[in-house]
Amino acid sequence: MKTKMVLVVLVLLFSCTNWHTSEFAKSIQEEVTKIRAFQAKAIYPDSPDEYKKMKMEFDVNDYFKILTSIKMKDGYRIDYIYRDNYWFGGPRLTVVNAENQNYFKTIEKVSLSLSYNKKRNNKILDSNEKKVNDFLSNYECDFHNFDFKNNLSILEYSKLYTPLLEYIDVNRTKRGYLEYVIFCFLSDQFSLIWHSNYDDYEIVATREKFKSILSENKIILTSKQKDTLNKINFEPTVIMKANTPKVKLLVFTKWGGLFEFRFLLEQINNSVKIKYVKKVNKLHYNCGILF
To answer: Which of 79, 187, 210, 284 could covalently link to 257 via disulfide, CB atoms 3.0 to 4.6 Å apart?
Structure first.
């Protein structure tokens, strides 16, 4: 009888795990909240004049005022080109320095003609599209094209390498590596329209944040999902191992649910490269919205 009672108590304790939220996790979540507040200031540029206004008022380099453990290398800054083809609309982040500054301005003008002038000769449009894409292929931060499904490493899938990330200095701290990953996820999530809204990754560093996501989206969990949720540790973790730190972070999307991302990074001097990413679904959800 006593043995049965002990087993029942152990089961109850396991099913009612009381996870502790660290101050570190809370501070990471606060950084994400600040990023979202900053991004909310960006407008949707529905004309060249609105585009110019947004570029004057919304400087993506201000991310580094929030993510203070990472920064651009000396002599470099990030900028963005806004692309809108009526199917999707959003920023394309790039790295700019003194050498490519003038060409960046040229590409920006070409991109404007693509986004806001649809009545031009198709051959000219195709030529301009190629110019923009060639520039972005050398300088863009296009993290979201990473092949998470097959968990391919950056080295194996070099065509999707993200040049901008080479120019970010990361201090050798847990916060620095986490901020690097947060930048990858969130830096281009502003002024999105239509299909671009599928890019809705939300960093979840605390259980309280996930509860607010459930409430905001009116998500009702099944009993089984509640049991699963209770066993999930939301604490972001960084394992400091020589020059190959490992980062674990939970991320939510309305088109898939709660995912655990595991990054294997490589630190070379002050720069960091992504060597490997693994994505595991922890709690499935799909809002059912199709753009």
So the answer is: 284
HSE toward the beta carbon, residue 103, CA cutoff 13 A:
14
Half-sphere exposure of 99 (CA within 13 A, CB side): 4
**Euclidean distance between CA atoms 204 and 210, whole angstroms:** 6
Cα separation, 107 vs 87, in Å, equals 21
pTM surpassing 0.85? Answer: no
Q: Are 96 and 104 in contact (CB under 8 A)?
A: yes
Q: What is the pLDDT of residues 138-194, one digit of tens each?
A: 545 444 444 444 443 333 333 333 567 888 999 999 999 999 999 988 998 898 887
- Other beta carbons within 10 angstroms of residue 136's beta carbon come to 19
Instruction: Tell me: pLDDT of 286 over 70.
Output: yes
d(CA 102, CA 106): 6
User: 253-281 as b/e, with b when 16 or more CB fall inside 10 Å?
Assistant: bbebbbbbbebbbbbeeeebebebbeeee
Question: Under 8 Å CB-to-CB from 212, ≥6 apart: which residues?
Answer: none
